[in-house]
Design brief:
Layout: H1 3-19, E1 40-41, E2 53-61, E3 64-72, E4 76-78, E5 99-104, E6 107-108, E7 115-121, H2 124-137, E8 147-158, E9 172-181, E10 185-191, E11 201-202, E12 214-215, E13 217-221, E14 224-227, E15 231-234, E16 237-241, H3 244-248, E17 261-268, E18 276-277, E19 289-291, H4 315-321, E20 355-357, E21 385-387, H5 428-431, E22 439-444, E23 447-452, E24 456-458, E25 463-465, E26 470-482, E27 485-499, E28 504-509, H6 514-519, H7 525-533, E29 536-537, H8 545-548, E30 551-561, E31 566-576, E32 582-592, E33 600-603, E34 606-613, E35 616-628, E36 635-647, E37 661-674, E38 679-689, H9 695-700, H10 702-705, E39 714-718, E40 724-728, E41 732-734, E42 739-741, E43 756-761, E44 764-769, E45 773-775, E46 782-784, E47 797-802, E48 805-810, E49 814-816, E50 821-823, H11 831-839, E51 863-865, E52 872-874, H12 908-917, E53 943-945, E54 952-954, H13 985-994, E55 1020-1022, E56 1029-1031, H14 1065-1074, E57 1100-1102, E58 1109-1111, H15 1141-1150, E59 1176-1178, E60 1185-1187, H16 1220-1229, E61 1254-1256, E62 1263-1265, H17 1298-1307, E63 1332-1334, ...
Parallel strand pairs: 20-21, 26-32, 29-38
Antiparallel strand pairs: 1-7, 2-3, 3-4, 4-5, 5-13, 6-8, 7-8, 8-9, 9-10, 10-17, 11-12, 13-16, 14-15, 16-19, 17-18, 22-23, 24-25, 26-27, 27-28, 28-38, 30-31, 30-36, 31-32, 33-35, 34-35, 34-37, 35-36, 37-38, 39-40, 41-42, 43-44, 45-46, 47-48, 49-50, 51-52, 53-54, 55-56, 57-58, 59-60, 61-62, ...
Helix pairs in contact: 1-4
Length: 1891
């Protein structure tokens, strides 16, 4: 044996020896995945691709950056949107697109067969673990991941054909790929758990009865890369496994030292052309194949080593290879292990020397040993295999066939690669518009960041004015289940108002259905989000909005207890709206506890800690709330809240880091549901600070406590001590206590530039561009809109752009208004006529519609009148209304003929008015809309009125309302001729309220101050909504004691007022209480201080609600001892003495309640009239009384119980010191109320203070003897009802024993008694453990040794026969069963198992009883000797348990499949929704199987495979499975076509859709029909329609396979549905339909797209349009015909040619010569015919291989076509009669699918699916240029209006490319995703050059 073979054998043997002690990773070792980790879930299906997963920053794959990833069903992650699976799933590596392939195979998750999860994450735990893996595998790597992408395929199955008798249905795989990267490098982990791979390959979909299976491919591929500028070739790739053996070993070995864990370095910013595996020394299952994969004569060379062969020739050679002389294979790196929750034994080998191939050459392949990659044999494991990319001058293209076929199975895709610019750094110069207009932008080395300007706060992208109140609006939707009743929330309104100055957040949700409204009161977290965003910041605190800005996503889960209801809350910040209000949408789904109607929900204040990470904040807390009804005891509940808030974080800047943790203190939580209004309200006060007690901080300053008197639109700025300063918020003006909005627009403070209009908003303003302008690049200035770029003019007109407008002018030789131009010779319908006719096109105009009037020449009559409304007005030649000419009904109309003078440019007022008036389709103002009134010169009339509301106001020359001039309906309007006076404080106050609504009206329910004609406050103010009235001073401040309720007589406010003095402390105190309610009313039940006429505190204060009264000092502080209850005589408040100790004590208790009342149950000391302690004190709640000394201290021995005679406290005697017993007793009684806690043990002392010898526990009844120190005497404790021990006999005490110490330690709780349910050891009279111990609560008993340890195997359950513990025998070591049992019991602190836990049952010898049962669930099963469950023995509760004495038989396939379905579930129940097969007594599949969740039933064969055609829906009669299955045969053409259409229809065709009808033998049925209709026809044996046999009668035609019945006239079905009226429409072919996509200028108008014609059973490929007759022509690949139809409603398709066509594809039409041309890619011919199908002739039938596209240029009589012959692709031309054939271009052409003609340049243009380029060239071969070099897979193309439009097979849509910019301009993806074929332009008239 040569040395190489010996080494190979040694390595294999070493590997096998090592593997026996190493287990693969388990599923629990995978990176976390699933719903709880925030994963997205890929939809079920056979070929699904995720939406683009946008990465926070690009990652490098090889050396190219990618910013998006796609996860696919078939076991791959790609950096490019994937093609259909048939283009790659059965092929080996390399692929033509970038791919990371942990298991590339044909996977199918349909029908719930597994899930695919994916996410991009920055979670520290994931990144840290990934970094550890990389540093293990690459010790020298300097790598710290910033992001990771985790993709997990869980329990996914292989695709399986329905009709196949055998398959892999029972086998599922689980594996995971993790991509980690930083700024420069990327690494990839593949993880395969030990039971993860159960199938190793999949069958191709078209294998029919051939048993062939392709192994999965594992590795990486860069995809195609550019080669020699105009070509593309396969990029580098790396293969890990590509045969069945190597795939099997993926979970058995690895390259990290851990079986199943594979690590690779996959990318770097600079020059990285090869994948590098980890180097710890794990065996590679297959040597990696790295390189560019050369295709030479359809054969791929292999990298093989003939000297190394894994197959030893004899056993002796194996033995020799593992002799003791063999070198030790351990690696130096073997000690670097990452724990996978077990002892890891690494697989280590000394790395083999690296192998290299010289530049340009592959490694040597021995002659005669060349194979394909799929046949590669195992080779010597290599650490790294480096192959340099070869240089090739003539890259050969991948072989391919015809692209189009009936089944679309032979299509060859050549995929492009995404190109990226290397200049990808984001800078302020390029991206400043992403910052707020109130922010500045700063550049940093890695990017830019936005920062709010001074006076504003936020994250820089969104900034709000400091201190200003904030409003939130949004919608709430979802499904909430209350009890068992689901209630839908359908986009109901949410509004929130936050007083930022003190952290108060008010949230209201309207139109909440009643059951949900009551129940949702407990869900305060809905409103807590806004409290966190705008919380009051204590020192070092930071409100959430400063971190998140206005764009974020919050996910919260609420779990209620008891009940375990779960509720999910998702709240998404959508940014700031035009009013600077935060927009938040809320989705709520799940269950909530039922709350009775009328109940009150009380939520306790709480504190919650938020943890902050980059881009996410999280928190978890448990809350308490109670639900109470009147006269009923409230019930307490809790809920557990878990939430995370994700947002966009800027990590480039050097700003101070957000604290890792912050604490939010929600002090007051108020919830209410108003049944009458169906409004749910939350009110929460929020403060945020560092974690810790914030109470001391709040005491420092009123700003932090929230009890300052600053305005709600002001900031409270803390000063030294208790001082503070009020400063109006940014955008407001005032003294801080009263602030008013600054009108930046009126005062010229706005930043608005030219062509913009300033709109004032509370605290800020907004710039709105005028008509014809739009915001510029930097979002701050308005720039002109180039309307001409959208081609608004007629095709025969030119567009002239102007500032704010444009003009359309007809070209010479045409006449019209530019929007419609016609040749001057023949007059077409005028614009007026078209306008008029469009409204009357339905026969009758809509009732009330305006119909324009035209004169005899088709021009608009100068005067137009609306027949329904009676309004008349003058119009210009374009039908546009002339400003100032509209007259209402009943008034004389204007003389429009005299107005024909040159029109002046429209004024601002006219533009404003016309914008409103033209917003309605009928040219009339929208009902209820405000239309400005302009004078004859087009200027704003000074007095403007809203005709709908009746409000009137004065405006300035800009149309801006003059403050203070608005008058309500019914009042005289303001005289607008008076000069405008400056705005007063009242004006500011009033207007700031009125402008808070988007319609300029006061918000409903808001208080609007009333001002007189001079702008001063009206002395008496009233609240319009509530009816309250009050008097105010000249500053608008309410005068004390003037407020009256609605209906009460009002105070006379007209008396003369003296000059106002400054507010006193009392008035501030009083007013702060009165303004705490948003509506300006005193809060119900709140205490309001009373002030005298000088503003001083009235000496006697009373609480209006409770009736208590007390005296106060000058500062309003209560004077001790003066409080009296309701009805009691009041104290004399005129004199005051210092408080005594008793009064301080008493008042300290009384002020602990927030309402100023004593807390219920609290002991309140009693003081006499002098403030001294009353000698006898009593506890009002408990009835206990005692004597006290002068300091209020209890005198020992004087306490008496309720009902007992009181001690005489008058006898004064010198007090003796307290004894030990008295101290002990008093300590128990020293709680806050002076009374022991209920159930506490209180020692009893005699009259001398000594312990009574006999002590008893009054609650439990236990008694015992004590010594002089109160210590229990051992053995004296007696239970309740037992005779007490005689404690008078004194005997010397012995020391406590171990048992007594143990017993007493349990009993020495605070009450001297063991906790309920605790185990108390039993000791004998000598203090020794009783041999048998019993647990009084559970009834379990067991034997113990002398140290109290349980003797194994002696425990018996309650009621069981107990073990004789007297037999003294040596103890045996515990068995595994006893250890198992002890572990379960040790999980409870009470020494007995947790309720519901499974406790194993052991026999007398400690061994597992063969039959184990779960006492809680009732399930039973058999176990092996080690306690492991024997598969297939589990029985449900109530079923007969298995006989566990029988030996295990080998599992049948049915039992294996059933047990696998049950094995992975907790508690081993089947997963809901998973199919569990049913087996008979012998373990065989029952003939009939049913799905327990769905109700479907079907028949199966002996291997469990479904028999085709036997599946029945739930409720239907199941098939008779006893009948034998029909003999299988190959699918016929009819059956294949039928299956293809069923798949095309999504699996469930509608009744009206066509499906081929096949006979039992697979042949076509002679009669074919649409669905269940009688619309039928005859076909021949090949399925071709017999012409003239279509019938729509009640009787189907009588058809024979070869004889046609009498001809019946066809009916118009299917018929045409013409597209919407538009000048230009794209027509596209999509399989069985022709779609219509209107163009709006050059834009694709997806909203108006529709289906023009549905052709069931067809495959439409080529398509053309006849502009003269308005007809569409197409080729049908399925029917092998050429057809046409008129584009008129109800038109019928007409067959033109149906003979000698095999594969008709491209179609072109010469409207001028009335000819059509087509290519046939099967017969390789080009033919022509007249448009009626006559005069057919062959133009070319030679030198053609794969002709595809064809176009005709009518103006030159030229014909062009493409031939994508892979050996020599080319584009040719000739004349339309077949003369002058020549090649236009052949160099640098790959797969020229699409072809069109550019009329503007005279060039022929093509889109190449091989080179991925769109190019143009002149017919003479000159002027070749590339338009775009980054296409995907174009199929057909057309040119129009400076744009190319092509159908794309990769995107399955229409793509637009701008010719000038060469960029992608637009995209349209139909809802039904399938391939689009031909595409053409349909116009309302023939375009220039088409005739």
């Amino acid at each position: 044996m040569d040395r190489g073979a010996m080494l190979t054998a040694a390595l294999l043997c070493c590997w096998s020896c090592t593997v026996c002690v190493v287990t693969a990773i388990r599923r629990t070792d995978l990176f976390p995945f699933g719903d709880l980790t925030g994963d997205l879930i890929l939809p079920e299906g056979d070929d699904e691709t995720s939406r683009a997963l946008t990465l926070p920053r690009p990652f490098y794959f090889f050396d190219s950056p990618f910013s998006q990833l796609y996860v696919a069903t078939n076991g791959i992650v790609s950096a490019q949107d994937l093609p259909m699976e048939k283009q790659y799933v059965d092929d080996g590596l390399p692929t033509d697109f970038p791919v990371v392939a942990p298991f590339l195979a044909d996977i199918d998750t349909s029908g719930g067969r597994g899930n695919i999860y994916y996410r991009v994450t920055e979670t520290p735990s994931v990144l840290n673990r990934f970094a550890q893996e990389v540093h293990r595998g690459f010790p020298d790597a300097k790598f710290t991941p910033t992001h990771a992408v985790v993709a997990t395929w869980e329990n996914v199955a292989a695709y399986e054909e329905q009709a196949r008798a055998t398959g892999t249905t029972n086998k599922v795989n689980t594996f995971q790929a993790v991509i980690g990267y930083d700024e420069t490098d990327s690494y990839v982990l593949f993880l395969y758990p030990e039971d993860g791979l159960n199938f190793y390959g999949t069958r191709p979909k078209e294998s029919y009865n051939v048993e062939i299976e392709f192994p999965a491919r594992v590795g990486f591929s860069r995809g195609e890369v550019s080669f020699f500028i105009i070509s593309k070739t396969d990029g580098p790739f790396y293969s890990i496994a590509q045969d069945e053996n190597s795939v099997k070993r993926l979970s058995q070995v690895g390259n990290t030292g851990i079986p199943g864990v594979w690590l690779f370095h996959t990318g770097k910013r600079f020059s990285f052309q090869e994948i590098i595996p980890a180097s710890i020394g794990g065996l590679l299952a297959v040597p990696p194949t790295a390189g560019y994969g050369l295709y030479l004569d359809s054969t791929t060379p292999e990298y093989e080593f003939d000297d190394y062969n894994f197959e030893p020739e004899s056993q002796e050679e194996v033995d020799a290879a593992v002799s003791p002389d063999s070198p030790n294979p351990r690696s130096e790196d073997s000690d670097r292990q990452l724990s996978y929750n077990r002892e890891d034994v690494p697989l280590t080998l000394e790395p083999v020397e690296r192998q290299y191939a010289p530049p340009g050459f592959p490694l040597t392949v021995p002659e005669g040993r060349t194979q394909r990659v799929e046949e590669q044999q195992p080779q010597l494991p290599l650490e790294v295999l480096d192959v340099y990319p070869p240089l090739r001058s003539n890259p050969s293209l991948s072989p391919g066939g015809h692209v189009v076929s009936v089944d679309e199975d032979d299509i060859d895709f050549d995929t492009g690669v995404i190109q990226y610019t290397t200049e990808n750094k984001e800078t302020c110069a390029r991206f400043q518009q992403q910052c707020s207009q109130n922010a500045f932008c700063s550049d940093y080395p890695t990017g830019f960041c936005c920062h709010c300007q001074p006076g504003f706060y936020g994250n820089g992208r969104h900034c709000l004015p400091d201190g200003a109140p904030q409003r939130v609006s949004g919608k709430v939707s979802g499904m909430v289940t209350v009890g068992s009743t689901p209630v839908e929330l359908d986009n109901i309104d949410l509004h929130a108002y936050i007083v930022v100055a003190d952290g108060r957040a008010y949230t209201a949700i309207s139109e909440v259905p009643e059951p949900v409204g009551w129940a949702m009161m407990s869900v305060s977290p809905v409103g807590e989000l806004f409290g966190w965003l705008f919380a009051l910041e204590l020192p070092n605190g930071q409100a959430g909005f400063k971190i998140t800005g206005a764009e974020f996503s919050r996910h919260a889960e609420v779990v209620f207890s008891p009940g375990n209801q779960r509720l999910s809350i998702t709240q998404t910040g959508r940014g700031l709206d035009e009013h600077n209000h935060l927009s938040v949408d809320t989705v709520i789904s799940g269950n909530v506890p039922f709350v009775p109607p009328g109940a009150e929900v009380t939520v306790k204040p709480f504190k919650e800690t938020y943890q902050y990470y980059p881009s996410v904040a999280t928190s978890s807390s448990v809350r308490e709330f109670s639900v109470g009804l009147p006269e009923k005891v409230s019930e307490s509940y809790t809920f557990h809240l878990k939430q995370n808030i994700t947002y966009r974080d800027c990590r480039h800047g050097n700003r101070a880091a957000t604290p890792e943790t912050l604490q939010i203190n929600m002090e007051r939580v108020f919830v209410m549901y108003v049944k009458e209004e169906r409004i749910l309200r939350y009110a929460i006060t929020n403060k945020i600070s560092p974690v810790g007690d914030s109470s001391e901080v709040e005491l420092l300053n009123p700003c932090y406590a929230g009890n300052h008197d600053c305005d709600t639109t002001a900031q409270c700025i803390p000063l030294e001590g208790q001082a503070f300063r009020c400063q109006c918020a940014t955008g407001y003006r005032g003294d801080g206590q009263n602030c008013y909005d600054i009108d930046e627009c009126a005062e010229g403070l706005s930043s608005c530039g030219d062509y913009s209009q300033c709109l004032n908003l509370p605290g800020t303003h907004r710039c709105q561009c005028q008509s014809g302008f739009e915001l510029g690049y930097e979002s701050r200035t308005c720039v002109d809109i180039d309307e001409c770029s959208s081609s608004p003019c007629h095709i025969s007109a030119r567009c002239v752009n102007a500032q704010g407008s444009f003009q359309c002018q007809c070209l010479p030789g045409f006449q019209g208004d530019g929007f419609l131009c016609s040749p001057q010779a023949d007059r077409l319908r005028s614009q007026c006529e078209q306008h008029r006719d469009s409204l009357q096109s339905g026969g009758q105009p809509s009732v009330g519609a305006y119909i324009p009037q035209c004169d005899s020449d088709g021009q608009y009559r100068p005067r137009q009148c609306h027949g329904s409304t009676g309004h008349c007005w003058c119009v210009d030649s374009r039908g546009q209304e002339k400003p100032g000419t509209r007259t209402p009904p009943g008034t004389a109309p204007q003389a429009c003929d005299s107005l024909d003078k040159p029109e002046h440019p429209k004024t601002q007022c006219e533009r404003h008015r016309d914008r409103v008036q033209t917003s309605s389709a009928d040219g009339f103002p929208l009902a209820g809309a405000y239309v400005p009134q302009c004078d004859e010169n087009g200027q704003y009339r000074q007095l403007q009125c809203h005709s709908s509301t009746g409000y009137c106001w004065c405006v300035d020359s800009q149309g801006e309302e003059r403050p203070g001039t608005r008058t309500p309906p019914g009042t005289p309007p303001t005289d607008c001729d008076k000069p405008e006076r400056p705005r007063t404080q009242c004006d500011h106050h009033r207007d700031s309220v009125q402008t808070t609504g988007p319609d300029g009206l006061p918000l409903l329910g808001a208080y609007v101050p009333q001002c007189d004609e001079n702008g001063l406050y009206v002395p008496q103010q009233c609240h319009g909504s509530t009816g309250y009235c009050w008097c105010v001073d000249d500053r608008g401040q309410e005068l004390p004691e003037t407020r009256t309720a609605p209906g009460a007589s009002r105070v006379d406010c007209s008396r003369t007022e003296e000059p106002e003095r400054r507010k006193t402390h009392c008035e501030h105190h009083r007013d702060s209480v009165q303004t705490t309610s948003p509506d300006g009313l005193t809060l119900s039940g709140a205490y309001v201080p009373q002030c005298d006429e000088n503003g001083l505190y009235v000496p006697q204060q009373c609480h209006g609600s409770t009736g208590y009264c007390w005296c106060v000092d000058s500062r309003g502080q209560e004077r001790a001892g003066t409080r009296t209850g309701p009805g009691s005589p009041h104290a004399d408040c005129r004199t005051e003495r210092p408080k005594t100790h008793c009064e301080h004590h008493r008042d300290g208790v009384q002020t602990t309640g927030p309402d100023g009342l004593p807390l219920l149950g609290v002991y309140v000391p009693q003081c006499d009239e002098n403030g001294l302690y009353v000698s006898q004190q009593c506890h009002g709640s408990t009835g206990y009384c005692w004597c006290v000394d002068s300091r209020g201290q209890e005198r020992a021995g004087t306490r008496t119980g309720p009902g007992s005679p009181h001690a005489d406290c008058r006898s004064e005697e010198p007090e003796r010191p307290k004894t030990h017993c008295e101290h002990h007793r008093d300590n128990v009684q020293s709680s806050s109320d002076g009374f022991p806690p209920p159930g506490a043990y209180v020692p009893q002392c005699d009259e001398n203070g000594l312990y009574l010898p006999l002590q008893c526990h009054s609650s439990t009844g236990y008694c015992w003897c004590v010594d002089s120190r109160g210590q229990e005497r051992v053995g004296t404790r007696t239970g309740p009802g037992s005779p007490s021990v005689d404690c008078r006999t004194e005997e010397p005490e012995r020391p406590k024993t171990h048992c007594e110490h143990h017993r007493d330690s349990v009993q020495t709780s605070s009450d001297g008694f063991p906790p309920p349910g605790a185990y108390v050891p039993q000791c004998d009279e000598n203090g020794l453990y009783l041999p048998q111990q019993c647990h009084a609560s559970t009834g379990h008993c067991w034997c113990v040794n002398s140290s109290g340890q349980e003797r194994a195997g002696t425990r018996t359950g309650p009621g069981s026969l107990r073990v004789n513990c007297r037999t003294d025998q040596p103890e045996l070591p515990k068995t595994p069963c006893e250890h198992h049992k002890e572990r379960v019991q040790a999980s409870s602190s009470r020494e007995y198992p947790v309720a519901g836990a499974y406790v194993p049952q052991c026999d007398a010898d400690g061994q597992y009883i063969p039959l184990q049962c779960h006492s809680s669930t009732g399930y039973c099963w058999c176990v092996k000797e080690d306690g492991q469950e024997r598969a297939g023995t589990r029985t449900p509760p109530g079923a007969q348990p298995r006989d566990c004495a029988k030996p295990d038989a080998p599992k049948t396939p049915c039992e294996e499949q059933r047990d696998r379905a049950q094995a992975s579930i907790q508690e081993r129940y089947p997963v809901a929704g998973v199919f569990v097969p049913r087996c008979d007594a012998q373990g065989q599949f029952l003939p009939q199987q049913c799905h327990g969740s769905t109700g479907h039933c079907w028949c199966v064969d002996s291997s469990g495979q479904e028999r085709a055609g036997t599946r029945t829906a739930p409720g239907a009669t199941p098939a008779d499975c006893r009948k034998p299955a029909p003999t299988s045969r190959a699918e016929s053409v009819c059956e294949r076509w039928r299956a293809s259409l069923i798949e095309h229809y999504g699996g469930s065709p509608d009744p009206q859709q066509y499906l081929p009808q096949c006979e039992p033998d697979g042949e076509f049925s002679p009669v074919q029909c649409y669905g269940e209709s009688t619309y039928c026809w005859c076909v021949d044996q090949e399925g071709r329609e017999v012409p003239g046999t279509r019938s729509h009668d009640a009787v189907k035609p009588a058809c024979l396979p070869s004889v046609a019945p009498p001809i019946v006239r066809p009916v118009t079905r299917p018929d045409v549905t013409p597209p919407a009226k538009t000048a230009v429409t794209l027509l596209y072919a999509q399989g069985q339909k022709i779609g219509a996509l209107p163009l709006n200028g050059s834009r694709l108008d997806a909203e108006r797209s529709k289906t023009l014609l549905t052709l069931h059973g067809s495959i439409v490929v080529g398509i053309a349009y006849d502009c003269k007759e308005n007809k569409v022509y197409w080729t049908d690949l399925s029917a092998r015909t050429i057809n046409r139809a008129s584009m008129a409603s109800g038109a019928e398709p007409e067959m033109l040619i149906n003979t000698k066509l095999v594969s008709p594809e491209g179609l072109a039409l010469d409207a001028k010569r009335r000819l059509m041309f087509w290519v046939d890619s099967n017969t390789d011919v080009i033919e022509s015919a007249s448009l009626d199908g006559s005069r057919r002739r062959t133009l070319f039938d030679s030198d053609l291989v794969n002709p595809r596209a064809i176009v005709v240029v009518s103006s030159t009589g030229s014909l062009y076509w493409t031939d994508w012959n892979r050996e020599a692709p080319k584009i040719e031309t000739s004349t339309v009669d077949g003369q002058g054939r020549r090649v236009v271009v052949s160099d640098g052409v790959g797969l020229p699918n699409a072809l069109t003609y550019d009329l503007s340049s005279g060039q022929i243009c093509w889109a190449d699916a091989g080179t991925k380029r769109l190019e143009c060239i002149s017919p003479n071969g000159s002027g070749r240029r590339v338009i775009n070099s980054d296409l995907n897979y174009p199929f057909s193309m057309v040119y129009h209006s400076n744009h190319f439009y092509f159908s794309d097979w990769r995107r399955d849509g229409v793509i637009a490319v701008d010719k000038d910019s060469s960029k992608f301009a637009d995209e349209y993806l139909p809802e039904q995703r399938s391939h689009l074929y031909g595409i053409t332009i349909a116009t309302t008239h023939c375009l220039p050059g088409s005739l």
